[in-house]
Design brief:
Layout (H helix, E strand, L loop, with lengths): L7 H15 L8 H19 L4 H8 L7 H8 E6 L12 E8 L2 E8 L5 H6 L7 H17 L3 E7 L6 H5 L2 H14 L4 E10 H8 L3 E5 L3 E3 L3 H8 L6 H8 L3 H7 L4 E3 L10 H19 L4 H15 L6
Parallel strand pairs: 3-4, 4-5, 5-6, 5-7, 6-8
Antiparallel strand pairs: 1-2, 2-3
Helix pairs in contact: 1-2, 6-8, 8-9, 10-11
């Protein structure tokens, strides 16, 4: 397992446990010692993760072994049928989407996919979508609206792809149209920030009736490194930028930007993906039930008012 810098004391203890387990089977009874060390690991994990700084949470949100969109789709969605292309330019694998069944009910699922190894990360462009990705997302949301199918989005991107080719094909317009589709459809829209929620690339999929966020995910207008390079003229100030951005799930819940913080297993989602899937499944199901039976026009009006309210600082 990839070890983050603040997890090194935990990794050392886990290494000792593995060494002892290799000795198992002989005349030496190591069960008691393994149990004692495991209790120390659990205690250290609990104390460490209870007081993570915003920068440490950023590291956890970016953990290479953290579950990505396709992992959640495989775990939560039955009979998933992927849908491709924007019907304008081409297919963008940074955004995956399609129809499937969540707990027996049809849903449209759309998510940023980062990839899990070098080959898949290159294939999915590290989850950074180009205009055709956002136009595909818009197409799928509008399709869901036509057929009365709820939409579930899984947000995990450092941001939209900033390359010249993306700008030439209208990146800003594509993001704006995707946000417009989020705010316009007359079906329930549940958005979940599962890792990184970066800038317009995230809000393009996250303007939902209910916005959920995993406990150690992050969500911000800009990455800490990008903020540091602008304000401090140095990427070394990323830790200070992370503090200033208020990008943690806990801060954003207090600010009213998100609606619910979904707990992660001890040590983060990457340590126990199966438990993460079960917990998130319950949270999504609850959010969908709260919106079931609400008339489409009311869903649309509530969603728009929710996001308009975030920008108000006084009487209108």
């Amino acid at each position: 397992m990839h070890v983050l810098d603040f997890e090194k004391p935990i990794a050392e203890l886990e290494g000792k446990i593995e060494e002892l387990r290799h000795l198992a089977g002989g005349d030496v009874n190591i069960a008691d010692e393994v149990g004692r060390l495991q209790a120390k690991v659990d205690k250290l994990l609990r104390s460490t993760y209870a007081k993570l700084t915003p920068w440490q949470k950023t590291q956890v949100a970016r953990h290479p072994e953290r579950p990505h969109a396709l992992d959640y789709i495989r775990a939560l969605i039955e009979d998933f049928t992927p849908l491709a292309g924007d019907r304008c330019f081409g297919e963008d694998r940074a955004i995956v989407g399609g129809l499937g069944r969540f707990r027996g009910s049809t849903v449209m699922v759309i998510g940023n996919e980062k990839g899990s190894d070098t080959e898949s990360r290159l294939k999915h462009n590290f989850g950074m979508a180009k205009p055709e990705g956002y136009r595909k997302a818009r197409r799928l949301m509008e399709m869901a609206g036509r057929f009365g199918v709820p939409v579930l989005t899984l947000v995990d991107t450092a941001g939209a792809y900033p390359g010249v080719d993306a700008e030439a094909r209208g990146q800003a317009e594509a993001i704006a149209r995707s946000i417009e589709a989020c705010l316009d459809i007359r079906v329930p829209l549940i958005s979940v920030v599962i890792g990184e929620g970066g800038s317009g690339g995230a809000i393009a999929l996250a303007a939902g009736n209910a916005v959920l966020m995993l406990e150690h995910a992050i969500y911000s207008v800009i990455s800490p490194e990008g903020c540091a390079s602008i304000l401090w003229r140095s990427g070394e100030a990323a830790k200070d930028a992370a503090e200033a951005l208020r990008l943690t799930a806990q801060d954003l819940h207090k600010l009213g930007v998100i609606d619910q913080v979904v707990p992660e297993p001890l040590g983060g989602a990457h340590r126990n993906p199966d438990l993460t899937f079960k917990t998130l499944s319950l949270a999504i199901d609850s959010a969908l039930r709260d919106l079931a039976g609400v008339e489409g026009g009311v869903l649309r009006a509530r969603r728009r008012e929710k996001f308009l309210q975030m920008g108000r600082t006084g009487p209108v």
